[in-house]
Design brief:
The chain has 285 residues and is an alpha/beta fold. The protein contains 11 helices and 9 strands. The strands form 2 sheets. Strands 1-4-3-2-5-6 form a 6-stranded parallel β-sheet, sandwiched between helices. A 3-stranded antiparallel β-sheet has the order 7-8-9, with helices on one face. The structure holds pantoate. Pantoate (PAF) binds next to β2 and α7.
Length: 285
């Protein structure tokens, strides 16, 4: 596995592979890799001859007061895991490479209809930071295909829409959430949880499952289902930001008769912000 951190070295290697007619798959990450990331790498491998993984803890997607400084940075361990997955290239850019004119001065990319709802309401600017850095990574690597976890449901939809809006010739592939045996979605932030919090954490998924089951079975008052789920989370020690049942197609309020829905939630457990979601089909009576 090649490890590069500057754009010219990255481009030289990619040009060489392209000359040989090889397809390139990109897996953007912020590092501190776990089994969920490795499932993205494996998916990438099934789509292309060459797999490029990027690790960059992107400052512009962290809101003031969030965990940018303490976000776990484990590049050596990550590199070993990626080597074991036969990754071809690991790109580890610096902030200066990604933001040559500074963080505040950088050109930004925004997907207006998804930017300020759900997680965007509680993390203002977060999705603009994501869309901006992913566009930069796409321009640096120019992959044929890019692979993202479905765990960040809103992020994945935003990236799909951004690619469509900007006419980028990149296939976006989503990979299902990888969970711990007790149902907790794998996340780099799970490492922040104390033993007690880790014990309670699967309640987030269990609550969403129970709420999705009532909504799927035809309960029409979705607002009541959301409120009950919020109450259940509070009773289990969470501080929920939101629980929302939305159209899986565009994250809008479900239309009457719309079948494909998703329930999404974000909640603090102590100082750790957890997110999860569950897609389901509602039966219409
Ligand atoms: O999902 C993530 O890890 C990040 O938001 C991403 C897509 C790598 C952009 O920094």
């Amino acid at each position: 596995m090649k490890i590069v951190s500057d754009a010219p070295a990255l481009r030289a290697q990619l040009a060489d592979w392209r000359r040989q007619g090889q397809r390139i798959a990109l897996v953007p990450t912020m590092g501190n890799l776990h089994e969920g990331h490795l499932s993205l790498v494996r998916m990438a491998r099934s789509h292309a001859e060459r797999v490029v993984v990027t690790i960059f803890v992107n400052p512009t997607q962290f809101v003031k007061g969030e965990d940018f400084d303490r976000y776990p940075r484990t590049p050596e361990r990550d590199a070993t895991m990626l080597r074991d997955e036969a990754t071809d290239l690991l790109f580890l850019p610096s902030v200066a490479t990604m933001y040559p004119r500074g963080l505040d001065e950088t050109t930004r990319v925004q997907v207006p209809s998804l930017d300020a709802i759900l997680c965007g309401e509680f993390r203002p600017g977060h999705f603009t930071g994501v869309a901006t850095v992913v566009t930069k990574l796409f321009n640096l690597v120019q992959p044929d295909v890019a692979v993202f976890g479905d765990k960040d449901f809103q992020q994945l939809l935003l990236i799909r829409w951004m690619v469509e809006d900007l006419c980028l010739p990149i296939e976006i592939v989503g990979v299902p959430t990888v969970r711990e045996p007790d149902g907790l979605a794998k996340s780099s932030r799970n490492g922040y949880l104390s033993d007690g919090e880790r014990h309670s954490a699967p309640m987030l998924y269990q609550t969403l499952k129970a709420a999705a089951e009532s909504a799927a079975s035809g309960v029409v008052d979705l607002a009541r289902v959301e409120l009950e789920a919020m109450t259940r989370l509070r009773e289990s020690g969470f501080e929920p930001q939101y629980v929302a049942i939305r159209s899986a197609a565009d994250l809008g309020t479900p239309a009457d008769g719309e079948v494909g829905l998703v329930i999404l939630a974000a909640a603090y457990l102590g100082k750790t912000r957890l997110i999860d979601h569950l897609s389901f089909e509602r039966s219409l009576r």
